[in-house]
Predict the 3D structure of the following.
Amino acid sequence: MRPIPTIAFYTLLEALRNRLAWLLVATVLAGIGVAGLLGEIAITESGPIQAALLGAFYRFAAVFILAAFVVTSMVREFNDKVLELSLSLPIPRSAYLLGKFAGFAALAALAGLVFGLGLLPYAALPQAGLWTLSLVCELWLVAAFALLCVLTFSQAMPSLAATAGFYLLARSIYALQLISHGGPAEDTLFRRFTGAALDAIAALLPRLNEFGNSAWLAYPEASWQQLAPIAGQTLVYLLLLGAAALFDFQRKNL
């Protein structure tokens, strides 16, 4: 287990050397500028509108930045033979994988903190703190899935496409279920099949629509108890994704 902190440190150092921290700060400033413009346009409740839209913008920006870095960093290690050099040392593959994920998780926590601070002018500290913690959990799941994809495909574009598909489907599966099961439409065999298929897919995916809810920023109705199911989902899916990534990595011939 000794190499894990070292690998995590150099993974985070790579992100900082690639000016990723400056990109996060620039994204925060761009979001504040857009929120100021929306505040001028909105007729009523400009504060809640600014907070909700800014939270949604920061969430998608954080997911895109983190997924892109995870995929490009791992692909670069594949292409530059850094992975083969690292594994030629007496380092278990499990330690290497855990070290890389720990570095990506630290970067996710840094991104969540930066974007959470960017929300403080528009949201109360408890609400922004709750949103930030749920965003960090969401980013950990995205980083784990992106790592699994890049170990499976070893290419940037398929890995990014698969990660984007996973994220969008996990974000929208609850809404798709409501559309499938609700409404006065005629009860047909196709509709039953579609509803059953969506229910089966939803049972396999995390409910990312519960993570980083923008309504928490707009209205002070959220409580810290809502973080418990989010933390539970994060733990379960991190274990599943980590086991799948480790299994795929152990059988890969380098």
About this structure: The chain has a mean pLDDT of 85.
